[in-house]
Design brief:
The structure is a homodimer. Chain A is α+β, with helices and mostly antiparallel strands. The first copy, chain A, has helices at about 5, 10-20, 25-35, 45-55, 80-105, and strands at about 25, 60-65, 70-75. Chain B binds a DNA duplex through helix 1, helix 3 and helix 4.
DNA sequence: AATATATACCTTGCAATGCAATATAGCAAA
DNA sequence: TTTGCTATATTGCATTGCAAGGTATATATT
């Protein structure tokens, strides 16, 4: 079992939360996630995910010029994206509760 | 994003924790997981997972007779399985911390 | 005996998604 | 020009959750 498997589906919610706070572009997002302690984040994860979210209308995107390199694609949350985020938060709370309950009796030994 | 995607890789650790507490058979495991609040658990998930764990030598299995149906395949944790469980717990704690930080919960657990 | 019900394990085929590797390109400084 | 950082995108693969379907055992009911 790799660490990456644990992330499946969970990153999505975290990305939505970050975007809600402030519009971001992909490259920036990868750096933020790493700062939050999510290890080993590659562009092969970030960009397909953002494009999928755009396709699902959870986010919108606009290109803006950069003074330090090629243009950046900034993502913002849609109403649908906000709703998805709320649902994620609910599910995350439930998951935490269930997992911690299972692990609790294990640590009682 | 479905609820099932969030489970990827996380169920494994929970199953190891349950098995460590007491040897279980697949059918029983499914019921326990449901009791812990993990919804929608099918045998199409449980059995392939247990067989994979056996292949990876995280668990051992022995058949025992049942008085209420066909024989049961009981699973126990190996040393390797215990080590895997400890690693899962560590990763789970880290994941919780990262996600909760992103979501701006204050995690005291 | 035949049928129904609950228990119990397994397989097939599919869908979702994280990610390494790779490609392309803008911009600035040496 | 070359180097290096910035920035987006694509391809192909591996993993794994799960619905659907199959097989088999034991007990109770008809």
């Amino acid at each position: 079992m790799s660490s990456t498997q644990m992330l499946k589906g969970i990153i999505d919610g975290c990305v939505l939360a970050i975007i809600k706070d402030k519009e971001v572009y992909g490259y920036e997002l990868a750096e933020k996630l790493e700062a939050y302690g999510f290890e080993s984040f590659s562009e092969g994860t970030i960009y397909p995910m953002l494009m999928r979210m755009q396709r699902e209308e959870l986010v919108t995107a606009t290109f803006k010029k950069s003074t330090a390199g090629p243009r950046r694609k900034y993502y913002s949350l849609t109403q649908k994206g906000e709703e998805e985020l709320q649902q994620f938060i609910y599910r995350w709370k439930q998951l935490q509760q269930s997992v911690n309950q299972v692990l609790r009796f294990e640590s009682d030994d």
